[in-house]
Design goal:
The complex is a heterodimer. By secondary structure, chain A is mainly α. Helices cover 73% and strands 3% of the residues of chain A. The model of chain A is unreliable at 435-441 (pLDDT under 50). The chains are: A mainly alpha, B mainly alpha.
Chain lengths: 493, 518
């Protein structure tokens, strides 16, 4: 039944092309809610034992000549990713509620991204997987280039070409695996003994391709520019789900198919991950644009994911998967506040300017949301970020204790830039008049009636906050499903 | 049937060659209809009333002629299906197998779509002659596809080439069209001379012009290092490299694509290409099979395969890099055609059954895509008078449907799922890797992937003009509201649907091709 998430979302996208404008956002909302409902039903109804292995849901021959099947499967890791996709998608639509121009087109591209992500997380056939993976690339271009803000055409093109560049490496790696093993079935491939000579070059090629999308240092630069250029919904989707495609695929495909290659290259991934955590946090400390701060914080958090994956213990990998979920929710929340709640009303994201406004007075709900998101992002206990990061660090202690020390130091930097952003954006000193350079009027301290936080924004924010707190208080609900699935993977043995 | 070669009766021959015959007869009929209708009487003073009448006359003539041509092609397509399979006449001059039938039908379908696109071009003078030329070119394609004999192949090439030269230069009011025609003619005839020279060398060495017989002779009697043989093979290949516009024989393509009337350019880029790839594949895989050589990076061996591999790599690099600098959509499509020729060649370099069928799948899908893209170009040209990027700006506001179709065509060319180009690339590249042990052709696949990475940029630039940029001209009238070119629009939408369908269910074309390839 979980397969219907893909069909429902595609159907919604097609319906959007045909429907009149007035219904567009409702169609998008209903579609994403339906998909999320399917995810939740799956979460509740499927016994945990069934999620320990990559269990086939659908398997239909597709192109017989090449042995391609339409093959979907699910395990605990997939379910977690599908769940975060559903949550982000619903809140994304809610935060795009007042898109004015070309609504149908906007939601069409948005739903295509969501459907592609569902597809990637559920596919168990390498060709199908790659088709969904590449499907996500182009809608992002249109979402950003048409609907974005700062420097949008540059940011869109950069992001799209980076993704496609990574896709090129993925293509080579997939072809190598396919030609060597003669099958595209992920379950069969993960049993196949590839020669170690093949693994030694195919793994880095494949993993590098995925890592581009995951925003690994030093090829992360598309992420901050892309996030800043994207419309709010675009940044939420990008940081929330699309970056996870890379890390998920790195785990599901690269590491699972080429365990020997992974052993050879694992320490380098740890190095890049740790450098990414510290470097991105340090850069975020110096950013003046709030979206750039959050963009770099995404890179930093994805560094945690990479570190957790590469540390290669059951615990650290499970933590990495939990971190994917957690960061998906938190990043969406942070971008929602910065891009929608603040920028829509003040028309600026400059921290210097914002600090003169003391927004917490006029936007108490936004301030509350941002405090929650920041706390989760910093890794305060009680939020999902803490549960995930502590799991990664405990898990990695056995294999890379030195890296754990450095990461611990990096977490201080994360706290530092988050607090700085929080203080300057919401709790600055009020100065009497603020002038903006390009003629836009700064927020008037006397609050304008029309600019209160809308109900859609409140719903969206509450959904995301609920998710991060729920998982933070009771991570077992996901970890119980993730751990057995991770333990079943080959590279651990 | 083989034994009865000498005694085959004319009636039998007519029956076996009936599709070609039907197309020729249709062409003559179209010529006659064109002469009978819509002629502008040459009077010294032409009043506005007369001019209007002549315009409406020419529109009527176009409608009738294209109806006749379309009907003839449809009948020919049906007849192809009825032919007895497994026939070989005159040492391979006319071969009828499922393979030849399939590609005859594909050529006929592509010609049919071209005719549909022409039908909505009201202003074309001399519709009869133009359509007849297309039909003659189609006969050339069918002869090319349906023959395993060098002389017949050469005749087919010339028939196709001569028709295309005239079709390219057909727009007498446009100096670019004349220039394109002249360039095409000069390059084309030179390369035909090369091919003929190569064929004569090979004939001199083997004493036969039939491909299977040449293969036998080459396998038994000749050392693969013979210098004369190498010259013969390379000379022969030059002519085909020209036809498929592989670098460095591509220089005619940008001018021809840009200058020719749009349907001519579409025909050159689609049907002519598919047939050329069919023949090229047959010549090297059947005729030159013993002198294949190897293009694997760790075991390069002299033969045609490294030659084609180098042509492919050059085409991909030159085509994609030069396309980056273009600002005219048709010129951009021309350079991208060079690159796509390179991708397709990879399948032939792979050199086995699967590689060949992958190449043919790719070429067919590419042809469908390009006919559609040229359909959109024709419409934009009709509306705005040009086909530069600036003419495409804001197309989405003027005609959302056409903009969507163009997006499908461009993204399929870039190889984005779920469109046909994506599967085509996967098919060709995986076939190339599988054909040689130890990933020998990986270098070529990597070049191709780099090329397709570059290509996404320029396809997106076209789409940026269409979807992102503000319209250069205010959208006072919408193309969609013009009911007059309904036929053209539905053709383009149909082709876009086909590209999408072939991407979602590639099996419906890939399986028949794989089954038919000998």
């Amino acid at each position: 039944m979980i397969a219907w998430t893909i069909y429902v979302t595609f159907a919604g996208a097609v319906l959007l092309l045909l429907s009149p404008r007035a219904f567009a956002r409702w169609i998008a909302l209903l579609t994403t809610i339906a998909a999320l409902a399917l995810d939740l039903i799956e979460l509740v109804r499927t016994p945990i034992a069934d999620l320990a292995h990559f269990t086939t849901i659908v398997r239909v021959p597709w192109v017989l000549a090449l042995g391609i099947n339409y093959h979907l499967a699910i395990d605990g890791v997939s379910l977690t990713m599908v769940l975060v996709t559903g949550i982000s998608a619903v809140s994304t639509v809610l935060f795009s509620w007042d898109v004015k121009e070309r609504q149908n087109e906007f939601f069409f591209w948005l739903l295509l991204v969501v459907a592609g992500c569902y597809g990637v997380f559920l596919s168990a056939d390498l060709f199908l997987f790659f088709a969904f993976y590449e499907l996500v690339i182009v809608p992002k271009y249109f979402l950003i280039a048409v609907f974005g803000s700062t420097n949008k055409e540059y940011g869109a093109m950069k992001l799209t070409l980076y993704s496609f560049f990574g896709g090129m490496f993925v293509f080579v790696g997939i072809l190598a695996a396919y030609v060597a093993a003669g099958t595209l079935d992920l379950n069969q491939l993960s049993q196949f003994q590839f020669s170690s000579q093949l693994q030694s070059w195919a793994f880095p090629v494949l993993f590098f391709g995925f890592a581009v999308l995951a925003g690994i240092w030093p090829i992360h630069t598309w992420a901050p520019t892309g996030h800043a250029a994207a419309p709010t919904a675009g940044s939420m989707l990008l940081a929330g789900i699309v970056m996870k495609l890379g890390s998920y695929a790195g785990l599901r495909v690269a590491m699972n198919l080429f365990p020997q290659g992974f052993q050879m290259w694992g320490k380098w991934i740890v190095l890049l991950g740790v450098v990414g955590i510290v470097y991105a946090a340090a850069v975020a400390l110096r950013q003046r644009d709030l979206k750039f701060v959050i963009g770099y914080s995404s890179v930093s958090h994805m560094g945690f994911v990479m570190f957790g994956l590469a540390a290669a213990t059951a615990l650290s990998v499970s933590g990495a998967v939990l971190q994917m979920f957690s960061h998906g929710v938190i990043a969406a929340l942070l971008f929602a506040v910065a891009g929608r709640m603040i920028y829509r009303r003040t028309h600026t994201r400059e921290l210097d300017v914002l600090s003169g406004m003391n927004l917490s007075r006029v936007l108490p709900f936004a301030a509350f949301t941002f405090v929650v998101a920041s706390a989760a992002s910093m890794g305060i206990p009680g939020f999902s970020g803490f549960a995930a990061e502590i799991t990664i660090l405990i898990g990695a202690w056995k294999t890379y204790p030195g890296a754990v020390w450095i990461t611990g130091a990096g977490m201080v930097l994360v706290a530092a830039f988050t607090l700085r952003a929080l203080k300057q954006s919401f709790f600055g000193d009020v100065r009497s008049t603020v002038q903006l350079q390009d003629g836009r009027v700064a927020l008037d301290p006397d609050w304008n009636e029309q600019q209160t936080i809308t109900a859609a924004e409140k719903f969206g924010a509450c959904l995301l906050m609920f998710a991060t707190i729920a998982v933070g208080l009771y991570p077992k609900v996901l970890l119980d499903r993730i751990m057995p699935a991770v333990e079943a993977m080959r590279f651990l043995r | 049937m083989n034994a009865a070669d000498a005694t085959v009766s004319y009636l039998e021959l007519l029956k076996l060659a009936s599709p070609e015959t039907i197309v020729v007869i249709t062409a003559l009929a179209v010529l006659a209809v064109g002469l009978g209708t819509g002629r502008v009487r040459s009077t010294t003073t032409v009043s506005t009333v007369q001019r209007a009448r002549s315009a409406s006359n020419s529109a009527t003539a176009m409608r009738i002629c294209s109806a006749v041509a379309g009907l003839g092609l449809a009948i020919a397509g049906v007849v192809v299906l009825q032919l007895p399979q497994g026939t070989t006449l005159f040492g391979g001059m006319l071969v009828i197998t499922p393979f030849t039938s399939l590609f005859k039908i594909i050529c006929i379908v592509l010609a049919f779509f071209t005719v549909l696109l022409i039908a909505s071009q009201k202003s074309t003078p001399h519709p009869g002659e133009y359509l007849a030329l297309i039909l003659f070119a189609t006969v050339g394609l069918m002869l090319l596809v349906g023959s395993e004999e060098f002389l017949m192949i050469f005749i087919g090439l010339e028939l196709l080439g001569l028709s295309l030269y005239v079709m390219t230069a057909f727009d007498k009011t446009d100096i670019r069209s004349a220039e394109a025609g002249l360039k095409y003619l000069l390059f084309g005839s030179t390369s035909s001379a090369f091919t003929l020279f190569g064929i004569s060398l090979i004939y001199g060495m083997t004493g036969t012009t039939s491909l299977p017989a040449i293969s036998q002779k080459l396998a038994s009697a000749f050392p693969t290092s013979s210098g004369l043989l190498a010259v013969g093979i390379i000379m022969t290949l030059v002519g085909f490299a020209f036809k498929i516009a592989a670098a460095p024989f591509h220089l005619w393509a940008p001018d021809a694509y840009q200058g020719a009337p749009v349907p001519s350019a579409g025909f050159i880029a689609s049907a002519s290409k598919v047939a050329s790839f069919v023949v090229l594949g047959k010549i090297v895989l059947v005729g030159f099979a013993p002198v294949r050589g190897s293009a694997a990076w760790h075991a390069m061996l002299a033969g045609w395969s490294p030659v084609l591999a180098v042509l492919a790599a050059l085409s991909i690099l030159v085509g994609n890099l030069v396309a980056l600098a273009q600002s005219n959509v048709r010129r951009l499509l021309a350079y991208s055609a060079v690159a796509h020729g390179g991708y397709t060649l990879i399948g032939i370099v792979a050199g086995d059954r699967e590689g060949f069928s992958a190449a043919l799948f790719y070429a067919s899908v590419y042809a469908v895509t390009l006919v559609g893209a040229f359909g959109v170009v024709a419409m934009v040209r009709h509306e705005t008078g040009g086909d530069d990027f600036s003419n495409f700006r804001g197309l989405v506001f003027r005609s959302p449907f056409m903009a969507g179709c163009m997006a499908i065509f461009m993204l399929s060319l870039a190889g984005i799922p779920p469109l046909a180009g994506f599967f085509g690339k996967f098919y060709v590249f995986s076939a190339a890797l599988r054909a040689t042990p130890n990933h020998g052709l990986l270098w070529l696949v990597v070049v191709a992937l780099l090329g397709s990475f570059v290509s996404l940029y320029y396809y997106l630039i076209v789409l940026k003009a269409i979807f992102v940029d503000e319209p250069a001209v205010p959208a006072t009238h919408r193309v969609d509201s013009l009911s007059s070119d309904l036929l053209q629009r539905s053709t383009v939408i149909g082709l876009a649907a086909a590209v999408l369908l072939l991407g979602i269910m590639p099996g419906i074309l890939a399986t028949p091709i794989l089954a038919a390839v000998p």
